[in-house]
Specification:
- There is one protein chain.
- By secondary structure, the chain is of the alpha/beta class.
- The chain is globular and about 50 Å long.
- Strand 8, helix 7 and strand 9 form a beta-alpha-beta unit.
- Strands 1, 2, 3, 4, 5, 8 and 9 form a seven-stranded mixed beta sheet that branches. It has a two-stranded antiparallel ribbon with strand order 6-7.
- It folds into two domains: about 170 residues, Rossmann fold; about 40 residues, no CATH class.
- Helix content is about 35%, strand content about 20%.
- The longest helix has 19 residues.
């Protein structure tokens, strides 16, 4: 059971002094802001249970009362972050949990009256769609072995259930650069075209490799929707204390 202990917090820094943080993603112009900073565990890598607790995964949990203890710092950091921002559109990343939508609502309350929150523009690709993308990737000498190994690792699920929704959890962080996991919902093309020229904020719960946000960003850029796009996450990239 995860609890909020600001004096002895481990693996996540929720302090006002250390946050927000800002990252430039994956050879793009996309800047992503994060509210809380994740920290490396002593064993190496990410041992932070907060995101699992919020989603009720891997045996972790958190009570509503404990969740409420995070709110003052989240609110203060968002107030600081949004002070000089004037986004016209907020777009959420697809998720099976309500965390992203709830986080986006907090942000929207701090935006101007004309800012619009839209939750269903992007959707996750299926295994067959991701595999088809991998088949189209050029096998350059530098990445040939990695791409072929990744294709083979997906073939089992592909053969069993090609229409299963693809999850980035299926892929090692080092291989996520080869995958674009999102597509625009085919029924939302008219909606996305109406966003042309507007400043856009992409919202997700966790910044790991940045692949999901990069995928959404590239979709918007390819359609020439906007050149004013930023991102924000509740939990940012891993960093030192």
């Amino acid at each position: 059971v995860v609890s909020f202990t600001s004096e002895t917090e481990q693996l996540v820094n929720t302090s006002l002094d250390a946050n927000p943080n800002h990252h430039k993603l994956n050879n793009t112009d996309l800047i992503v802001h994060s509210v809380f900073k994740r920290l490396y565990s002593r064993q190496g890598g990410d041992g932070n249970p907060l995101i699992y607790a919020l989603k009720g995964q891997k045996g972790f949990s958190i009570t509503l009362k404990e969740c409420g203890k995070f709110n003052p710092n989240i609110s203060a950091i968002l107030d600081r972050l949004m002070q000089k921002k004037d986004y016209e559109v907020i777009l959420t990343m697809p998720s099976s949990h309500k965390i992203v939508e709830r986080f986006a609502k907090k942000i929207n309350r701090r935006s101007s009256e004309h800012c619009v929150l839209i939750n269903n523009i992007f959707t996750k690709k299926t295994f067959s769609e991701v595999y088809a993308d991998l088949q189209d990737l050029p096998l350059t000498p530098k990445y040939k072995k990695d791409i072929i190994a990744l294709r083979r690792s997906l073939e089992k699920d592909l053969n069993r259930n090609p229409n299963k929704v693809f999850s980035m959890k299926e892929v090692d962080t080092k291989d996520r650069m080869f995958i674009s996991p999102l597509k625009i919902d085919s029924t939302k093309i008219d909606t996305i075209q109406k966003l042309k020229g507007k400043s856009i904020l992409l919202v997700d719960d966790l910044l790991a490799s940045g692949t999901t946000l990069t995928s959404a960003y590239n979709l918007l850029i390819d359609l020439e929707i906007s050149n004013e796009i930023e991102g924000v996450c509740l939990l940012g990239k891993l960093g030192n204390k």
